[in-house]
Amino acid sequence: MKSLKTTFLFLLIVLVNGCYPQEDANDKQEAESGFTFMTSPDDRMILSYIDPEGNIFDVWGDKDSQGKPVSIDQITIKSKGDTTQLLINEAGNPVQIFTQEGVVFSFDWISEVEGSLSVLSSDGLEQINTQINLGNHTEGNSGNENNLRKTVGSIRKGKPIKLELKGENSSKDRVISENSLGNLNVYVNSCNAPSNLDNMLVIVRNKSGEIIDRFPTKQIGNGHYVTNIPLGVGAYKPSEYFNSATELIDKLCIVDQQIPDYAEFAAAEVICAQLSMAFVASGIGTPFALQALTACAGLALTYKAICTINDAIKLSNLANSEFLNRKIQEDIVIYAKVFSAIPYKESQRITVTSFPPFPDLYVDLGSKVDLKSLTINPIYPKAGEDYFAISSFKCLEVGSLVKMSVLGSDGYEDSISFNISTSQSGGEFKLQVPGADTGVQDVITLEVSDILGKVLERKASIVFN
Q1: Looking at residue 204, what is its pLDDT?
Q2: Rounded to whole angstroms, how far apart are CA atoms 277 and 242?
């Protein structure tokens, strides 16, 4: 184990040193603005920023009926040929990050600095989960890794785990907000049923094949998603738009406040260090660990996107910024791309005029078994407190074998296995695990074997406080 730990730490040092730029205060100088503000009320892009290195940050969110920016929910980062999708919450913390290579980072926050991280491999076959604390620069799961309780015998001896299988309520609508209504509809199915909680873009190209833009969608109903192709109808007053966007960005920049005494990109470094130690503790093989840690080391630019934009916008002004009431005025090719599916799935490509009504787009995700990340609730269970391990699924076939197991550092071990007797288009597994002593680490594993013998695995670990 010592040699494995050394290997992971060496790997992390190499990746971090290679991917995190070092800032010299003497090199700082005021640059051109690089900002373009999209002032049309029907354009979900709030602004686009090009930094001095040529990295592009497209910021998306909701506007009110007059066109004033009111919220930000997504940022597209384009850097050196790679495109990364960043979904953020109302506080500015990342919720999900989809990398160009297909690795998915999912965050669950209980505060601005504490939460959990799960990483899903690009092929969707492996996953790891760990606790994270951006205010803790020690190695491992929030600093508890070096103080794990490994004695045999525990307060939960003889207490079994309990598993609940819940089917999805397919009639449930998921209305986001009035501002989410758009002029282009996308309908997504999986297993011949509406598919929910998917992440996708509507891609618009000109007839020569060049990409005009990628428009994020929002879900407004059961399997129903919408986006806007901007028509350039009206425009919010530039000075007021600039002030509103600036205030919104500044409010969401919390990374610098999380770890104020450390160098730039410290938050991402802490996340990668704690992820590295989670791999050491879990024993998950090197190929996935290498893929995940390589992707993590490249997240410095992504994780700090909001604050990067915030720093730059403070140096900009009305005079050196561009304001665009954009409107597409040519025939276009449109199609939807579900980037949360593994592999990516696309709708048919349709050539249309640039003025609505636009035809509906349809994406069929097929009948392949899909498992979302295994999450823990509560993220930081207290001594003796039961917790739940939860994973949603799609397309569970008759004859599939499901196994969930728990292995504790206190010697506790239990598992449940069962066969699926009725096809399930969607739902979730919910495993209840009895509480343990402070410092005990649990590793929870979910395995689903389909009728062809293919195995999907999700793994999570927690340490009792």
Answers
A1: 96
A2: 43
- In the chain (465 residues long), the average pLDDT of successive 10-residue segments reads 45 43 39 83 92 94 89 92 90 90 91 87 84 63 46 76 76 41 86 89 94 92 92 83 92 65 61 87 79 88 87 85 88 94 91 91 90 84 93 87 92 91 84 93 88 83 85
CA–CA gap between residue 180 and residue 248 (Å, rounded): 18
CATH code at 186? 2.60.40
Q: What's this model's pTM, rounded to 2 decimal places?
A: 0.81
First to last CA, the chain: 24
Distance (Å, whole) CA 203 – CA 215: 6
Q: How far is 105 from 296, CA to CA, in rounded Å?
A: 9
Tokens of 438: 């402070």
Of 5, 381, 367, give the one whose Cα is nearest residue 195: 367
Query: What strands, in cross-sheet order, belong to the sheet with 322-324?
Result: 127-133, 114-120, 104-109, 94-98, 82-88, 69-79, 56-63, 45-50, 35-38, 322-324
**Residues belonging to the chain:** 465
Domain that holds residue 192: 178-233+327-364
Least Cα distance to 124 among 451, 272, 345 occurs for: 345
User: How many domains is the chain built from?
Assistant: 1
Exposure on the CB side of residue 112, measured as CA atoms within 13 A: 12
203 in a structural domain: yes
Handedness of CA 443, 444, 449, 455 (dihedral sign): negative
Residue 153 lies in a domain: no
Question: Considering the domain boundaries, does residue 450 fall inside one?
Answer: no
CB of 387 closer than 8 Å to CB of 462: yes
Asked if residue 334 is part of any domain, the answer here is yes
